[in-house]
């Protein structure tokens, strides 16, 4: 759990740096403030419930499932035509693949904590459906906003690229949806999906480019 918190704190720090670079290019982060407002409303709602901590864990476990699925596919496709990052600059490839590896590494922590504390399968699945709606709409809204500010939203090539990314041979719809929906099974556990060797091999092969939170800098 301590390792999970440390990794997420580092991710948040790097997300802030990443977003500041985007904002310097005119791409405003609307997603972050919207999540803060949503969390504030949720905590006011949860404050009246004895299950507050279970609800928050269920939400965290659901989001971790999203990020671990995306992380697994990011690592799985390196060097293949299905690699989403193949045209990205090398530093960005390293950043996102490192992030993907850590998401795969701690994908079961929140889920296991929820199970150990007696969280129900029904509520876990209901919260996952709830965050699935928000996660999907948040991604779409932020992407459209970015494309608008980049003056590429109305280009036919943008929409063709979007169709390919979503529904093409290596589209995320076909690759991700079955893995996302596996979460709805009553007997689901995060470790049923993915190959931990991908994460371990990438972290080991690129150990000179990162170091664990709390460890001395290389």
> How far is the N terminus from the C terminus?
24 Å
Radius of gyration, in angstroms, nearest whole number: 18 Å
Low-confidence stretches: none
Proportion of strand residues: under 5%
The averaged pLDDT comes out at: 89
**Number of helices, where a helix is a run of at least 4 consecutive DSSP H or I residues:** 9
* Helix content percent band: 55-70%
Major sheet: none
Number of domains: 1
How would you spell out the order of helices and strands?
HHHHHHHHH
Number of strands: 0
Global morphology: globular
* Class by SSE composition: mainly alpha
Keywords:
68% helix; 218 residues; mainly alpha; globular; single chain
How does this structure look, described?
This protein has 218 residues and is mostly helical. The chain has one domain (2-209). Helices cover 68% and strands 0% of the residues. The protein has helices spanning 2-24, 31-46, 52-76, 90-105, 109-116, 121-149, 156-167, 172-181, 196-205. Helix 3 packs antiparallel against helix 5. The two termini are 24 Å apart.
